[in-house]
Amino acid sequence: MHRQRQGIKPATIRRELGTLTKMLRLAYKNRKLLRLPLFDKPKEGPAREGFFEADQYQAVRRRLSEDLQVAVTIAYTFGWRMQSEVLPLERRQLDLDSSTLRLDSGSTKNDEGRLVYLTPELKTLLAAQVDRVKALERRLGKIIPFLFPYGGKGQRAGERRMDFRKAWATACKAAGVPGRYRHDFRRTAVRNMEQAGVPRSVAMKMVGHKTENVYRRYEIVSPTDLQEAARKLAASTEAGR
């Protein structure tokens, strides 16, 4: 209750309590505690419903630099987390010969590694990105292991890109969708996979959801989906007459 009165969101409190519970279980396992205390966690709030329609995504993407266009395409396609999974990627995790991209075990939120096969579009984009990194290596005279390093001529050139919040906000505003979150790509990817008929077990593996309960929170239905359902029902009714 104290944390809630401080204005901390329920989801944040639940994560904090989850970490505390892990610590207490470890203490109990090592006989530092006689018994485990029980905590009442605040109720999980409703799932955020932001996602990108294809035209919105394209409008934002084309207003970003070439390297960031590649990064958001990965997030849009596979639902990977931008900050912790896409931007930290290294070139060794990309295999253009086998058309695969992988996340190492221990580098994801659920600690499980992931392997995905690239779409033709992503393979082309990533090949071009590797060429840009190699050109940056030649200019700076040093090896760059990162897939998304800072470019330009500043002091950070060649270092791993940590963020692009300002560029993102500017692109969203210019595209007519201000205030959007990059995390919306996770919901978008889940929705796209469901509509494409990707088996749920496969989609969960690609996105990185361990349970169907979490996966379902990301399965968003938009007004466009509902309108399409109405058109299909109307067509079915007409065919049955």
Description:
The chain has eleven helices and three strands, in the order H-H-H-H-H-E-E-E-H-H-H-H-H-H. It has 241 residues and is mostly helical. The protein has two domains: 45 residues, no CATH class; 168 residues, hpI Integrase, Chain A. A hairpin with a 4-residue loop joins strand 1 and strand 2. Helix 4 crosses helix 8. The chain is globular, with a radius of gyration of 22 Å. The termini are far apart. 21% of the residues are buried.
Descriptors for this entry?
241 residues; 4% strand; mainly alpha; 3-stranded antiparallel beta sheet; single chain
Care to give the gist of this entry?
With 241 residues, the chain is mainly alpha-helical. It is built from eleven helices and three strands.
Structural class: mainly alpha
The strand count comes to 3
- Give the CATH level 1 class of the largest domain: Mainly Alpha
Oligomer: single chain
Per the CATH scheme, the topology name of the largest domain is: hpI Integrase, Chain A
Q: What fraction strand?
A: under 5%
Shape: globular
Specify the CATH homologous superfamily of the largest domain.
Intergrase catalytic core
Mean pLDDT across all residues, rounded? 82
Number of domains: 2
Q: What is the alpha-carbon Rg in Å? A: 22 Å
In DSSP terms (H or I, runs of 4 or more residues), the helix count works out at: 11
User: Reading side by side through the largest sheet, how are the strands ordered?
Assistant: 1-2-3
